[in-house]
């Protein structure tokens, strides 16, 4: 920002857009010793350095995080084609089930510094610093530096941000790019800048390449705000939006075209698709099917058929299963694990949006504060409705996508009401925002009442005192205390989310469904997978001694990823992420004939209630070589086979990137037969099994 007033001229020549510097009251600039610019830089530097230090602290406590994506980052650190396509393995058999932008960042870091937990996770924490900076810049441009600092701090203090910006899922880079799109759009709004709007399109194009359609859910908010408030004619606004759409298509379409033009036999299979095409994944499993509940997961956000959330893990309000969301509906964002991760400031953010629109209702069409409220408000509403009512797999951490919108609205609303503190709307609006944040924080803390029991009462008492005090400043004698009371109330309202974010930073997060907050006995916050607890040094040594393209083959991506990380070799994931139709029996036989795979590995099945190191109950194990839905067969342990083939690998209720591949009506207790049973049967009939630890291993180079 500059001290000079910036204005934009509409078609009639009227100056309609005032800057944040013009809107600041004289009280904003009563700093002693330092200039406005110096104070602004000091506040921003403190926010960004603090975010970086806190988020980087002990980041390797998360180890490999989600092993599914860690294996892909490892492959990308060692093979350029694996990096380009986001392959799960350096042999480039199959990709992860997401586009590769996140893998590009982690893989390149691994190539530069060597693959490790730190090289993979440090870039995620730095993305948090960048996201906070961009949100600060966006809000400060429309409402001043105070609002920007509050918005940035609110984002950094959200538990879901404290978890996911230290984790290796694609959500961090996606949210950074969505925030960049919002920042560029707000820059474009001040002067109807087609160039800035085009950059917003580029940012969203790469957000699409991070997590597909979820990265584009902010698009309606940016388009509506520009169409409503840009200071130029309607025709030019539409042209500018079309230009931004073109840059979006170009910045994302090149990769789609690359996957189409690259020979299929020379690139990895597109995991999650039914026909090895990128767009099938976009509109299928990871797109509309996930919203409609036809993504192959359970209708209750990944819950096993016939199992209610309360039956699985009764803690945290009885409405969340580890890091998996609660039932679809209007209350989803406020209940269970989702409530703890994201909802702390949602009531205050929604109220802030309404208050800003009320306060700026009679301003010109191009009013920037109102335009900012439209950007963040529509973003929150659109994404929130989708998350609330999607019937497919819904993990609580998905809600990181609305964290910048919530924080932006909170910063805008608090500062707008503070500027109106001498008016009735400002006093009562400020009091309402304080009560909304502190009151809802009290309710959330009450749900985990055994943790810091005095905290919730302190938050509630402080916010009530502050809200009453702000209302009481209608008396002229108390008016000089209004700023102190509002600041005290806002800090108290942030108490709950700050405490939960701090508790989150101190916990290790691994697997597919991490959760926020303090550790709780009996609560499992991470998805496990078969093979992760069964790997052995002996098996790893066997894999490392191989010289073939793939050291081994195993059903599904998650156990393959576990073996890749432990052995540092390429492992073929048969069926990929969710029973993908690759390889066929003929293709696998061809790989074996060419001597490209050394071992076929079978891990013991594992039920979703089974803790690491435990074997499932006998009646929960599948019969080898038959569909459990056809009746119960005899249970087989590790190393036991029939003439029909090895027992197929089984998976638990897993998180993102860790799927059971369960088919309707198959099995009981989470058991099922492999989606590639024909390969298992052929291996069992052709090769001799050997027990290695808990695994059954077939040497594919030595037929019977």
Topology of this protein?
Blueprint: H1 20-23, H2 36-56, H3 67-78, H4 80-85, H5 101-113, H6 117-143, H7 145-156, H8 159-164, H9 171-191, H10 194-211, H11 219-229, H12 234-261, H13 278-283, H14 288-292, H15 309-312, H16 336-342, H17 346-359, H18 368-389, H19 403-419, H20 424-447, H21 453-472, H22 482-493, H23 495-505, H24 537-544, E1 550-555, H25 557-567, E2 571-574, H26 585-593, E3 597-602, E4 641-642, E5 645-646, H27 677-686, E6 687-692, E7 695-703
Helix pairs in contact: 2-6, 2-7, 3-5, 3-25, 5-6, 6-7, 6-9, 6-18, 6-19, 7-19, 9-10, 9-11, 9-18, 10-12, 11-18, 17-18, 17-19, 17-20, 18-19, 19-20, 20-21, 20-22, 21-22
Quick structural overview:
By secondary structure, this protein is mainly α. The protein contains 27 helices and seven strands.
């Amino acid at each position: 920002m500059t001290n000079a007033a910036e204005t934009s001229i509409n078609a009639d020549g009227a100056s309609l857009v005032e800057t944040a510097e013009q809107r600041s009251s004289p009280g904003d600039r009563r700093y002693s010793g330092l200039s406005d610019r110096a104070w602004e830089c000091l506040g921003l530097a403190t926010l960004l350095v603090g975010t970086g230090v806190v988020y980087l602290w002990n980041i390797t406590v998360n180890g490999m995080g989600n092993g599914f994506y860690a294996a892909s980052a490892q492959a990308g650190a060692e093979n350029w084609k694996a990096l380009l396509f986001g392959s799960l393995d350096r042999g480039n058999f199959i990709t992860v089930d997401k586009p590769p932008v996140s893998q590009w960042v982690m893989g390149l870091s691994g190539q530069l510094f060597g693959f490790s937990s730190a090289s993979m996770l440090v870039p995620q924490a730095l993305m948090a610093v960048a996201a906070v900076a961009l949100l600060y810049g966006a809000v400060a441009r429309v409402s001043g530096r105070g609002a920007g600092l509050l918005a940035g701090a609110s984002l950094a203090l959200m538990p879901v941000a404290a978890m996911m910006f230290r984790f290796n899922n694609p959500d961090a880079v996606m949210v950074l790019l969505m925030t960049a799109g919002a920042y560029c759009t707000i820059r474009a709004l001040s002067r109807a800048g087609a160039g800035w709007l085009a950059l917003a399109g580029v940012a969203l194009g790469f957000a699409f390449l991070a997590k597909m359609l979820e990265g584009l859910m902010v698009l309606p908010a940016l388009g509506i705000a520009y169409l409503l408030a840009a200071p130029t004619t309607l025709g030019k606004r539409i042209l500018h939006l079309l230009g931004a759409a073109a840059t979006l298509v170009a910045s994302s379409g090149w990769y789609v075209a690359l996957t189409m033009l690259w020979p299929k036999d020379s690139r990895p299979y597109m995991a999650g698709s039914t026909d090895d095409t990128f767009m099938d994944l976009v509109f299928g499993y990871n797109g509309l099917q996930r919203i409609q509940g036809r993504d192959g997961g359970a209708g209750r956000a990944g819950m096993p058929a016939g199992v209610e959330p309360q039956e699985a893990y009764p803690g945290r309000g009885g409405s969340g299963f580890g890091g998996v969301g609660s039932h679809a509906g209007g209350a989803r964002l406020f209940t269970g694990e989702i409530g703890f991760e994201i909802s702390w400031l949602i009531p205050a953010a929604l109220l802030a949006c309404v208050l800003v629109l009320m306060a700026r209702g009679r301003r010109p069409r191009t009013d920037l504060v109102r335009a900012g409220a439209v950007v963040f408000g529509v973003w929150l509403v659109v994404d929130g409705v989708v998350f609330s009512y999607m019937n497919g797999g819904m993990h609580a951490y998905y809600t990181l996508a609305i964290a910048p919108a919530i924080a932006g609205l909170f910063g805008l609303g608090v500062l707008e009401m503070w500027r109106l503190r001498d008016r009735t709307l400002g006093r009562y609006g400020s009091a309402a925002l304080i009560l909304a944040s502190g009151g809802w924080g009290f309710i959330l803390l009450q749900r985990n009442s055994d943790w810091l029991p005095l905290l919730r009462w302190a938050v509630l008492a402080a916010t009530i005192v502050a809200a009453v005090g702000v209302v009481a400043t209608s008396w002229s004698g108390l008016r000089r205390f209004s700023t102190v009371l509002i600041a005290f109330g806002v800090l108290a309202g942030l108490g709950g989310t700050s405490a939960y974010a701090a508790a989150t930073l101190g916990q290790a997060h691994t697997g597919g469904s991490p959760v926020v907050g303090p550790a709780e006995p009996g609560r499992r916050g991470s998805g496990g997978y078969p093979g992760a607890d069964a790997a052995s040094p002996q098996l790893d040594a066997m894999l490392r001694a191989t010289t073939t393209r793939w050291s081994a083959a195993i059903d599904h991506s998650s156990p393959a990823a576990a073996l890749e990380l432990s052995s540092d070799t390429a492992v073929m994931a048969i069926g990929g992420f969710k029973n993908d139709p690759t390889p066929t029996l003929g293709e696998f036989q061809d790989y074996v004939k060419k001597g490209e795979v050394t071992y076929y590995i079978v891990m013991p099945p594992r039920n979703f209630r089974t803790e690491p190191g435990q074997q499932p109950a006998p009646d929960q194990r599948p019969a080898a070589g038959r569909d459990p839905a056809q009746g119960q067969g005899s249970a087989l342990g590790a190393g036991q086979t029939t003439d029909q083939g090895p027992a197929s690998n089984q998976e638990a209720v897993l998180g993102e990137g860790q799927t059971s591949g369960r088919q309707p009506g198959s099995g009981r207790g989470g058991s099922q037969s492999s989606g590639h049973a024909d390969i298992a049967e052929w291996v069992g009939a052709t090769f001799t099994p050997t027990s290695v630890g808990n695994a059954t291993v077939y040497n594919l180079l030595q037929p019977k």
